[in-house]
Amino acid sequence: MGKSKAKKKVTFKEFLASKDIKVSAKTYFVDAMGGMAQGLFASLLIGTILSTIGKYLGMVQVPAIERLAHFISQAGSLASAVTGAAIGVGIAAALKAPMLVMACAAIVGQFANAYPGKPYAAGPLGVFFAVIVAVEFGKIVSKETKVDILVTPIVSLGCGFLTGYLLCPPIAIAMNWLGTFINEATKLHPFLMGIVISVVVGVILTLPISSAAICASIGIAGIAGGAALAGCCAQMVGFAVASYRENKWGGIVSQGLGTSMLQMPNIVTHPQIWIPATLASAITGPMATMIFKLECTGVYAGMGTCGLTGPIGCFTAMSKSGTLNGWAWLGMFCICLFTPAVLSLLFSEIMRKFGWIKPGYMKLQG
Predict the structure, then answer these.
(1) In sequence order, which residues have a C-beta less than 8 Å from that of residue 246 and are 6 or more positions away?
(2) Are 172 and 118 contacting, i.e. CB atoms less than 8 angstroms apart?
(3) What is the C-alpha separation between 303 and 223, in angstroms, rounded?
(4) Which among 126, 150, 176 is the end of a domain?
(5) Backbone angles phi, psi at 164, to 5 degrees
(6) What is the DSSP annotation of 5-40?
(7) Is residue 313 part of a domain?
(8) pTM of the complete model
């Protein structure tokens, strides 16, 4: 009998590949952050919308409607309460985690979102780091032993909790400081900060990372949130209108109510198409902070016109602060829709006339 072939040694890189672990910037800062955004939308965002609907529906003093309003408010509160778990599941799904690891990710996410507690919690950014570590180490040991049902949760939860214990306190302090700095600086210098915040957050919205998650993490609020909302709306409405020749009404809906991220393949090829919407955001940002003094908070500020959640967040924030009036309504219309549409169309037509933007440059793929 011939000698049996020696078992081929598996390299560490091959082992990671077999576990579907791809260590790259795209994996963690595009895919995982996208999953983070999905979790935020499904929990905090929807929860806040439901709570707002329940609040105003409850003003109708009819017993049946009041009961419905109470139920909707409760549902919204409970959805918001599991934000950490929802983000954890979103990240785990983006990283293609096995079911058992995904369940652990929900627990780690809920822990990291609230840790270390008062006066600050790490929030979504703390969840982001803790869950990534929990998921990747959980995937490494998943189905490697006969007692997988015990080993995988112990390793995944242990690594996630340890990461949260070490990173969440400094993250909480840093995010609180950064949010406070941005919010206060915008009050002191509304013109300059209006431009900076609007342009930066708008650009982030169009990039394949989550502007909503970033805004939620730093706790952006007040007129700084209004500037962020202006930038996001300028990108979405701007691209929708500027690309109407190529994409017609389908493009208006997919970009204006969906996401300007759809233009990223075209931006990579022809980066100049980003100019009209970005110039519009540089104008609407200070308009929001100085003329209309629009306010927005957290995740809403980074949503733009996606499902009209940005304007809803502006309405909610200004209702709470008692600044919702006719001028504010006019401001929401001008900043979220009319002005970015007119400016982006104007700038894009000028660029088309000079041949800087040619037919087909903004044609959506697929």
Answers:
(1) 359, 360, 361, 362, 363, 364
(2) no
(3) 15
(4) 176
(5) -65, -40
(6) PPPPPPPHHHHHHHTT---SHHIIIIIHHHHHHHHH
(7) yes
(8) 0.79
**Mean pLDDT in residue range 323-342:** 96
Question: How many domains, in total, are found in the chain?
Answer: 2
**Could you tell me if 241 and 334 lie in one domain?**
yes
pLDDT digits (tens, 9 = 90+) for 310-322: 999 999 899 989 9
Domain boundary among 117, 152, 176: 176
Q: Cα dist. 51→29, 76, 186, 247, 331 in Å?
A: 31, 5, 28, 36, 24
* Tokens representing residue 126 in the block: 């703390």
Closest listed residue to residue 292, CA positions, set 228, 201, 212, 227:
227
Which residue range(s) make up the domain with 315? 189-353
**Predicted pLDDT at 157:** 98
**pLDDT digits 0-9 by tens, 248-266:** 999 999 999 888 888 988 8
Higher pLDDT among residues 261 and 242, named by residue: 242
Whole-angstrom CA distances from 42 to 104, 109, 181, 219 are: 19, 14, 29, 18
> What's the confidence (pLDDT) of residue 323?
92
Compare 308 and 347 and report the one with higher pLDDT: 347
Report yes or no on 62 lying in a domain: yes
Q: What's the half-sphere exposure (Cβ side, CA atoms, 13 Å) at 79?
A: 20
**Looking at the domain assignment, is residue 363 inside a domain?**
no
- Please give the distance of CA 36 from its chain centroid, rounded to a whole number: 7
